[in-house]
Amino acid sequence: MDVPLELSAYTRVLKLASTPGWEEFSQIALIAGAGILLVGLMGFIIFLVMGVVPGTGI
């Protein structure tokens, strides 16, 4: 992996970067929250199935 040691490479990236507006931030937060809830729900369903099906319980 080639990591540039020149400061100009980092300043160029920082100049291109911009902070998101409120609409973009809220949309990203909503999608990330929905993903977290979906993964948690899937884990809970697997936990329930593991407890109900004989021989797979903890």
TrEMBL record:
Compartments (UniProt record): Cell membrane; Endomembrane system
TM stretches of this protein: 28-53
Plastid recorded as keyword: no
InterPro entries linked to this entry: Prot_translocase_SecE_dom_sf, Translocase_Sec61-g, Translocase_SecE/Sec61-g
Any GO MF annotation of the entry: protein transmembrane transporter activity
Entry keyword set: Cell membrane, Membrane, Protein transport, Translocation, Transmembrane, Transmembrane helix, Transport
Domain of life according to the entry: Archaea
An individual GO BP term: protein targeting
GO CC terms of this entry: endomembrane system; plasma membrane
Gene3D superfamilies, per the entry: Preprotein translocase SecE subunit
Aminoacyl-tRNA synthetase among keywords: no
Topological category with respect to the lipid bilayer: Single-pass membrane protein
Protein's job: Essential subunit of the Sec protein translocation channel SecYEG. Clamps together the 2 halves of SecY. May contact the channel plug during translocation.
HAMAP family: SecE (MF_00422)
Subunit record text: Component of the Sec protein translocase complex. Heterotrimer consisting of SecY (alpha), SecG (beta) and SecE (gamma) subunits. The heterotrimers can form oligomers, although 1 heterotrimer is thought to be able to translocate proteins. Interacts with the ribosome. May interact with SecDF, and other proteins may be involved.
Family that this chain belongs to: Belongs to the SecE/SEC61-gamma family.
Annotated protein name in UniProt: Protein translocase subunit SecE
Species: Halarchaeum grantii
Gene that this polypeptide is encoded by: secE
